[in-house]
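Justification of computing resources. Each target in the renewal requires a structure prediction run like the one illustrated here; the chain below, 410 residues long, is used simply to show the kind of job we budget for.
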Amino acid sequence: MTNERNLNKMMAKLQMVVVLTLALLSNSSCIRKDLFLRVDQTQIAVEIYDINLDLLWGIGWDTQWQYDWDAALETYGDLGYTKPELIKGTIYNLDESTGKRFSSFVKIFDSNGGRVSLTSGSTYDMMFYNFGTEWTSFYQSDDYETYTASTRMSSQSSWIRTRAESESSEMPDTSRSYIDYNQPDELFGTLVEDIYIDEDPSAYDKEYDEEGNITYIYKINATLRPYSFIYVYQIIITNNADEKGDRIKGARGLTATGLSQGVEMFSRRTFNNTISITTDDIKPMQRHKNVRLEGEAVADSADIIAARILTWGLPGMNPLETTKAATKAPDIDRNFVGIGLTLRNNYTWTVTRDITEQMHQRPTGGIITIYVDANEVPEDLINQKPQSSGGGFNAEVENWSNEVNAEVTI
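Resulting structure tokens:
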């Protein structure tokens, strides 16, 4: 009789815990069952592990840099990703007969993970990505079949623009459709599919809280991987010094073209349409020794300028599932870079390079190397009277010619 009374007390205690959990989460869209004495409510422990750093510095970044790697890090600091503080989890209810998502609710976790209460006997998909992005727009389709992330057109009054509508362009016709966009935020995420919440408590780890109440734990590995990728554009300037000093002293800005506008987050496939991204965040020019040049040559010293750009990557592909974008249509996959180099008289000399092959060899980001021979600076430009004020870099894809004091029309 005593054993039966104790058993009834334990079951009532477990029931109270489950009902309390249900009451706390009653605002969610998830359908709940009548609990009574059954363990129909299970605590799910979602474990968010550290961001996978193999994609950041592990794929030959040190060998892609054209001089000493330690010197590069000392000069430019940490150019990699930063770990997010908050994680947004979108939990989708699945129809068991069709496998389609039919409703969802959202929970915010910290970067160490957390727990969410789900209904046993049900199946879920879970989408996790870092919360608090500023420049990224998200769109969830009404049928929950697609979830996209993209960036808006550039809204700041940047003096670096790209457009390509002129017949005089040296670029192929198919490259004349770029629109200038903001860089995306650093975005990391993962989709965990077909999570079935078993009704049998023995399928889970069991924990007790301080009051002795039982919680059943289903642990999920939700390792985040990048959606946006870092490219560092390394501009190596040779033959820079002459009898009057350095011909080139820095850069005003850099524009990269042929990049994807966004990504479908479930499949990780990037958009097909191409955009350009511009940055004026240029690292100061530094002189370094033993710099590798094209081919096998090594320069005793050379000047190096670097710029960092975040992008969704190349169009029409899943960067994490390919090593080279060789299967994409050739009429949309050209990549160019325009650089506004600042001369010693403060004029801007605009140069352009085709970087398609380098970009395609690095679909998940990396270092893109651009060589500039300072002897190619036009003498009539560098010998002009020093410019005291004004001026700007306008990297228009339509002509890519040398530009002096070029203002931009917004």
